[in-house]
Each structure stands twice: as C-alpha cells, then as structure tokens.
C-alpha cells in the first residue's frame, strides 16, 4: 500500500527548502547593505554558514522522510499476520512513530522558517537607519547638563529656569567601587563579558512578549538601558528594540566599559531627595538621601541607592514634600535583593552580607528639608511663560498650525504647552529677554515705595471646602509696562505688589476694563480715519437713553453725573474725556457700517469679542473681558509710530547650549491708521496733558518731554488707568483690586477724582525713576513730528464747519458766520461745508433742538436789533 501523504510531504519540504534558500540569500544581501564595512565580511560568512547548515538540515529531513516512507510501504505490504492482535500492535507502533517523526519534522521546519523570517524582519526594521558617529553618541550619553538660563537684555543672568530635576555629574574616580559592583551584580552580571547585548536574554524576553509565558524578566543590558535613556524614545515597538540592539553594539565599540558604567550612573533617576526635589545621578542621590558623596558610601548605602532606579518613586525614601515615607518595606526589600545578588556574584562575603542586611539603613537618611524655590518673581514668571509660548508657536508652525488652532482645541493646546515647557526646562537653552535690568529694578523700587499710596489694603475672610475659615489679603494692585514704540520691545514692567502675597501678573495676564483709555483707540482715531470727524468737529453732549434687553434704560452721563446739553469739539470731548459725545459718535459709526471694532484687532487687542462691538457702552470701556495692561499700552504706541502697530515682545533670542539660534524675534509692523490720522489723534492726546484730565503730572514730573496720553476710569472706580507716549516709548500705569473674595473699589467721596490723582502721581514717580536711570530712553530731546499731510485751517466756532447758508424744509434759510477757531486738518479732509447735519453723532432730535434754538436765538437777535433802531419824526 502506497503512502500519498509521504509523497506530498516530500514535495512540500522541497518547496520549503527552496523558499528558505531564497530567503537566506535575500537576508544576506540586505545585511551587506546595512552593516558597516568592517562587519560586512563577517556578516556574509555567518549568513553563508547559516544557509549551508539549513541545506544540510533539509537534506537530513528528506532522508528521514524517505526512510519513513519506505518503512510505511514495507509495512503495508507485509504478509498476513499470524494473528490479529500482532497486526494491530504493529500498526499502532507505526502510527505513533509516524506522528512522532512528523512532529519533529514540523518543529524543524518551523524553527528554520521562524529563524529566517525573524532575521529578515530584523533586517527590514533597521534597513533605513543611519549609524551614528562617535561624536554624536558621545554627546548623547553625556547630555546631562541641560539647565536652561534666562537673561536680561545686557546678557546678565536673571536666573536658571526652574526644573524639578536636580542633577550633579561626577567622574568614575568619584564613584565608589561598591556602587559599580552592586549595579553590575543586580542589573547585568555579564557586563564585562558581553559586547552590548546578551542574545539569550533578548530571546527570552521576546518569547515572553509573544507568548505571555514566563516571567517578565528584562532582556536589556546596562548598555542597552543607557541607549534607551539617552538616545531612543520610550515607545515600545519592535523597530525601537531593533535599533536599541544595534546602538548598544555600536556604543560598546566606541566606549570603554567604565565610561558606559559612569554615564549610566550619572543619567539614571533616583527618586526624590530630602527637599522633595526629583534627583538624577549617583552623586546627587548619595548626597540627597544620605548626605555623603558617591565615593564615600557604605555597602548598605550602595545597595540601597543601586536599587532605586528600577522604580524610582516606589523605592525613594522621601515624598514630594521632602518628608520621609512611613512605609519603606519595598525599598528595604529591594536593597536586600541587591545585597543578595552581590553575594551570589562573589562581590561580597557572607559576613559582609549579613552585616549589611542587619544594618538599619534608615538611620542614615538625612533629615527632611523641604524648601521653597526662591526664583519666583514677576520677571521670572513672565520670561518663562513667554518663552514657552514662543516655543509653542514654533512647534505649531512646524506642523502647519497656528496659535488660534491650538486655542480652539484645549487638549491640543495642553499637549503643545507641555512639550514646549519640557523643552525649555531640559534643553539647556539660553533665553535672552528684552528687559533692561536697571530700569526694571528701578520700577520695582517705585512699586515698593509708593504702592501703599494707591489704596487701602483689605483682609477678606471666607470658609473653604473643609469648613475652615481662611483669610486673603487684598492689596491695591498695580500693573505698569514701558514699551519701545518702534520695535515693541518691553523694556521694563511692574507685575504687581509683593509677589509673596499675590503671584498674579497684572501686566501680561489679567484682563481689565479699559475705561476711557479705549476712547481714542475705538472711537476718535477710527472716526478721523474714516473722515467722520476732525478735531474741530462739533459733537453733541446731550442726553442718551437706550433701552436694554432687560427693559431698563441705560442713561450714561459724564464724570460727576453731568451733561452739558451743548455741542463741544471732538478735541474737547476727548481731552476732557466726556462720555456722552463719545457714545454718540460710536453709535453713529456702527449705524453707518464703519466697523470701528476692526481697529482694536489690528492694534493687538483680541480679548474683546466681536460680539461686543455693537454694544454702545464699549465706547467708554464697558466690556465683559477687557484687554491686558500690555495689550492696552501696546495699542497706544500706534499713535506715536505714525499709525503702525508693532506687537510687543519680551523674548529677543533663544539659543541652544552650543550657541545656535533656536529663535530670533523679528518685529513686524501692521498699518492701522494713516500717518495723518495718527498725528491728529496724538495731538489731541497732548491736550490731555496740558489742559485735560492728565494735566496734574506736570506737578510731579521733574523733567520735560513731549507727552501725549489718556486717563481712564471704569465703572465705580474699579480700574484706574493712565497711558502716555513720548516719541520713543509708551509708559502705562493701572491700579485696581483682584477681588478674590470681596468686592473692593477705590474710594472717591463726592466724585473728586482722587484715585485718578493718586495714579497720576504714581505714574509720574515711575517716569522720574526711569529718567534718573537712563534719560535717553524717554526721548526727552525729541518731539512728535507733524506729517506733511497736516494743515491748519479755521472754521466756525459754532458749527466746526465753513461759513455758509443753511436752507430748511419750510423754505427758510439762514447764513452762519461769526467767530472762528483754528485747528489741524488732514489735507485730504478739509473743513466741511455748513449743512443741517453739521454734527457727527447727533440724533434727529439733537439737530432739531439745535436748529430750533439757533433760529429762536436768531429771531430774538433780530427783534432786539429792530427794537433798538430809532424812529424818524416828520
């Protein structure tokens, strides 16, 4: 009887042999391309040897198969058996033999196929990798000095950038042999014998990974672990593992065993020290846990330290607060494991082992020493934050994203922020700020000396979530910033009063109602730009009554709850900071589709939502989410730069540890207003200083400059502002309460403007201090230059127009002439002709009342003149 299964198996085995042969040739070819020249010959040799062995095994398998086939044929053609029992027993043993032979054959085939496929897969994984050079590997394994530093504009250090990781590196000669022996015995007993990898360990780990059988024992040598920590990422993929193996081999070719061991001990994490800080490196670990140098540790101390890196935050004896853990069982057991491994490997005697096991290592721990970082300040906080934002924006741009894209996705924003924060802290960057050290320190002195004059300090009580009564101190806070107009460079700032009490940054972070400082930005400059007004235009200071969504009437007034019920010039309305004329102008602009809110965005004020642009009260600073002090101050620089806005910046340059430029700021200007519009607005703001709400600074300043500025007060005196520009810089001062647990405003009995007066004095003291430090910064020798497109013209004082005749619907007409005033105009927007609608922003009722009053007064004048004419007697 023939055995067809045997024939098929022979054909199948032949095909497998041919496949394995081709696979071996393919692998051999690929490996020749991948491996370095010095290993090419050896690699080829091994591949050919493997191929020969494979053919030999296949031939042996074929021979076995033929013998099995012959036996089967012989057995099936035997003469009839003498008895059925003997025949059955013979068949049974034949079947068992065939099954056993088949299993062995299958295992051989699977082994050959699996080995070839595995080798091919490994070759494919590493085929695209470029072998690193000695220099790059040396840099990678020694890359531990990664503390970044921030600097003033003069390159003097502000501070190292805070990181929770404390690291001190040492040379091999400063590490105790006990530590090295403990590490080798525990983590890599064949360290001095292998060339970077242990194939058996790798195979064992691979089988465990694929099958799930066996203990999760590591397959990594110390060399591989160093590669993982310093060169590769933490991703768990076969590709990364393959590269890890190759890099470990290469590392061993370039560096001595002692260099590898020392690098490993310098980079490994060791949990926390007695201050609660994260620590890395054996020297910092020995000092932070036992108060000794790494060269001076005892056997028990060495064993304890070496055991930590396997699971740093489980085995570390201290908490994040620097307190000793109550339960140290896991750490002590780990220490004992290390000692046992040292005994097993012959590094210590049984007597030494017993003594170290019995020793109470906890008595060697240094006392808890929790400390607070002293690097915190408004300056440190601001430079760190702005540097992170710069790196975030760079990373986003590299992925074709904008900051708007990140802000629209909170998870994406947090991801980019965390990556940028980590990069800044651990990359050894040098961050150069724009801050003038002397000016900055001088501004802080003013805040310390005059801060208490701003307003009363309150102590508010509240009950926390645990039912405990707490207190919070409410200082009258301040925010001030000095910006260079042409570049946007932030020269100095005051983030607040007493960082130890309140860490909120009141320049870069807090958003406040801008009060009347918004008037030139949102109303007057846009109205001049679109030729709705010029400084001599007459605008109504009359009653406003607007019905609110809740049915109530909004009826604003000027300072002191007054309304003059007259017409005032646009110039006067702005420098005297009148509310009602401003609101009427703003409403008129919106009704004409002029969209004045667009100018805020061009000047960098993006925190006021577009949905608020239609709100009439925005014209006087009422907003749900106002600008920061930095944004509002920066917007004012637009008038001093001829109508262009340059975004403010705090970070000038970021370089890496080799001095390569990672980031370099480049200022870009955005055209907001024409030069003529900017100058006309600025000229009105000069009047604020000479004749308006900011004139009291002339009593406090001890120098002269061409200032143009604006005061501002929000509802109920919650926010008090003053911002002013010279040709070179813009300086601001804001004051207000944060009101965490209370509702505090500045006390102003009888509406005398006392808070504004205090703020103007405070602003003046800041300016005086800056002038005393560096007079040139303030541009006291310069004046704002009038553009060629500005001309002087005269208009009727009554209407702000040219003299002329007005005709009415009833056929009556009147000729207006009389007193005039001279003011500045754009050459392409000269005084307007007189008309019924002479007043921008006036309502129909305003105009009707005006002309009725004018005509009545004209008639009265005529009648009076007639009565005074003498009669002639005949």
TrEMBL record:
Q: Which UniProt keywords apply?
A: Carboxypeptidase, Cell membrane, Cell shape, Cell wall biogenesis/degradation, Glycosyltransferase, Hydrolase, Membrane, Multifunctional enzyme, Peptidoglycan synthesis, Protease, Transferase, Transmembrane, Transmembrane helix
Instruction: Name the reaction it catalyses.
Output: [GlcNAc-(1->4)-Mur2Ac(oyl-L-Ala-gamma-D-Glu-L-Lys-D-Ala-D-Ala)](n)-di-trans,octa-cis-undecaprenyl diphosphate + beta-D-GlcNAc-(1->4)-Mur2Ac(oyl-L-Ala-gamma-D-Glu-L-Lys-D-Ala-D-Ala)-di-trans,octa-cis-undecaprenyl diphosphate = [GlcNAc-(1->4)-Mur2Ac(oyl-L-Ala-gamma-D-Glu-L-Lys-D-Ala-D-Ala)](n+1)-di-trans,octa-cis-undecaprenyl diphosphate + di-trans,octa-cis-undecaprenyl diphosphate + H(+); Preferential cleavage: (Ac)2-L-Lys-D-Ala-|-D-Ala. Also transpeptidation of peptidyl-alanyl moieties that are N-acyl substituents of D-alanine
What is a biological process (GO) this protein takes part in? cell wall organization
Residue ranges occupied by any Penicillin-binding protein transpeptidase domain in the UniProt entry: 481-744
Q: Which GO terms describe its cellular component?
A: outer membrane-bounded periplasmic space
Superkingdom, according to UniProt?
Bacteria
Q: Which InterPro entries match?
A: Beta-lactam/transpept-like, Glyco_trans_51, Glycosyltr_51/Transpeptidase, Lysozyme-like_dom_sf, PBP_transglycosylase, PCN-bd_Tpept
* Gene3D superfamilies to which the protein is assigned, alphabetical: 3.40.50.12800, 3.90.1310.40, Biosynthetic peptidoglycan transglycosylase-like, DD-peptidase/beta-lactamase superfamily
Q: Where does the Glycosyl transferase family domain lie?
A: 156-342
Q: Mind telling me what this protein is named?
A: Penicillin-binding protein
């Amino acid at each position: 009887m023939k055995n067809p299964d045997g024939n098929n198996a022979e054909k199948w085995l032949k095909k497998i042999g041919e496949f394995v042969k081709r696979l071996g040739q393919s692998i051999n070819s690929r490996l020749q391309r991948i491996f370095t020249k010095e290993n090419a010959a050896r690699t080829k040799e091994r591949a050919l040897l493997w191929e020969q062995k494979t053919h030999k095994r296949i031939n042996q398998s074929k021979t076995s198969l033929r013998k099995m086939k012959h036996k089967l044929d012989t057995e099936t053609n035997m003469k009839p058996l003498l008895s059925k029992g003997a025949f059955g027993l013979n068949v049974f043993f034949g079947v068992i033999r065939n099954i056993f032979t088949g299993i062995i054959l299958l295992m051989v085939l699977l082994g050959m196929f699996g080995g070839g496929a595995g080798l091919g897969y490994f070759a494919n994984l590493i085929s695209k990798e470029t072998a690193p050079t000695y220099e790059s590997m040396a840099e990678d394994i020694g890359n531990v000095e990664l503390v970044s530093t921030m600097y003033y504009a003069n390159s003097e250090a502000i501070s190292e950038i805070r990181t929770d990781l404390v690291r001190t590196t040492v040379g091999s000669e400063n590490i105790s042999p006990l530590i090295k022996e403990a590490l080798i015995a525990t983590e890599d007993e064949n360290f001095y014998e292998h060339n970077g990898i242990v194939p058996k360990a790798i195979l064992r780990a691979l089988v465990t990974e694929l099958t799930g059988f066996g203990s999760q024992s590591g397959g990594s040598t110390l060399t591989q672990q160093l590669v993982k920590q310093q060169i590769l990422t933490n991703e768990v993929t076969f590709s990364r593992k393959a590269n890890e193996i190759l890099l470990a081999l290469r590392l061993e070719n370039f560096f001595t065993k002692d260099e590898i061991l020392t690098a490993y001990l310098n980079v490994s994490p060791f949990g926390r020290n007695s201050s609660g800080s994260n620590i890395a490196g054996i020297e910092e670990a020995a000092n932070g846990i036992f108060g000794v140098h790494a060269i001076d540790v005892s056997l028990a101390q060495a064993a304890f330290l070496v055991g930590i890196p396997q699971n740093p935050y489980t085995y570390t004896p201290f908490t994040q607060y620097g307190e000793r853990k109550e339960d140290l069982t896991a750490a002590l057991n780990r220490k004992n494991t290390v000692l046992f491994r040292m005994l097993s490997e012959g590094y210590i005697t049984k007597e030494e082992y017993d003594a170290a096991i019995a020793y109470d290592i906890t008595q060697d721990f240094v006392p808890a020493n929790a400390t607070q970082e002293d690097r915190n300040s408004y300056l440190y906080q601001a430079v760190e934050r702005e540097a992170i934002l710069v790196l975030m924006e760079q990373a986003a741009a590299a992925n074709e994203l904008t900051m708007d894209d990140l802000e629209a996705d909170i998870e994406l924003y947090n991801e980019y922020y965390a990556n940028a924060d980590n990069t800044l802290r651990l990359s050894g960057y040098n961050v150069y700020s724009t801050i003038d050290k002397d000016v900055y320190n001088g501004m802080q002195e003013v805040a310390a000396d005059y801060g208490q004059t701003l307003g009363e300090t309150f102590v508010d009580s509240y009950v926390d979530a645990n039912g405990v009564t707490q207190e919070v101190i409410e200082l009258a806070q301040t925010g001030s910033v000095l910006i260079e107009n042409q570049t946007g460079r932030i020269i100095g700032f005051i983030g607040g009063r007493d960082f130890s009490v309140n860490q909120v940054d009141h320049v870069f972070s807090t958003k406040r109602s801008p009060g009347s400082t918004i008037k030139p930005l949102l109303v007057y400059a846009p109205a001049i730009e679109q030729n709705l007004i010029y400084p001599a235009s007459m605008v109504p200071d009359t009653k406003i009554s607007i019905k609110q969504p809740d049915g109530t009437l909004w009826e604003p007034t000027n300072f002191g709850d007054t309304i003059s019920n007259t017409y005032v010039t646009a110039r006067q309305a702005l420098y005297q900071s009148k509310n009602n004329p401003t609101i009427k102008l703003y409403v008129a602009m919106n009704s004409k589709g002029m969209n004045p809110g667009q100018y805020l965005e061009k000047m960098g004020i993006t925190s006021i939502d577009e949905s608020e642009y239609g709100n009439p009260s925005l014209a006087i600073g009422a907003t749900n989410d106002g600008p920061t002090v930095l944004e509002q101050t920066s917007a004012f620089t637009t008038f001093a730069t001829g109508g262009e806005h340059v975004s403010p910046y705090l970070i000038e340059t970021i370089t890496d540890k080799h001095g390569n430029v990672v980031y370099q700021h480049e200022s870009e200007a955005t055209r907001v207003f024409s030069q003529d519009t900017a100058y006309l607005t600025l000229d009105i703001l000069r009047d604020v200083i000479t004749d308006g709400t900011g004139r009291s600074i002339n009593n406090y300043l001890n120098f002269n400059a061409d200032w143009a500025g604006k005061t501002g007060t929000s509802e109920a005196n919650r926010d008090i502002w003053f911002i002013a520009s010279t040709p070179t810089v813009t300086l601001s001062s804001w004051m207000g309460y944060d009101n965490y647990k209370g509702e505090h405003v500045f006390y102003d009995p009888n509406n005398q403007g006392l808070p504004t007066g205090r703020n103007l004095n405070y602003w003046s003291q800041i300016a005086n201090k800056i002038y005393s430090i560096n007079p040139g910064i303030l541009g006291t020798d310069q004046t704002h230059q009038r553009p060629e497109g500005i001309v002087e013209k005269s208009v009727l004082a009554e209407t702000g127009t040219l003299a002329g005749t007005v005709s009415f619907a009833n056929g009556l007409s009147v000729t207006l002439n009389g007193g005039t005033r001279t003011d500045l105009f754009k050459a392409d927007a000269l005084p307007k002709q007189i008309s019924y609608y002479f007043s921008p922003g006036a309502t129909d009722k305003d105009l009707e009342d005006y002309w009725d009053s004018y005509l009545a007064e004209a008639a009265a004048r005529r009648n009076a003149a007639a009565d005074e004419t003498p009669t002639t007697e005949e």
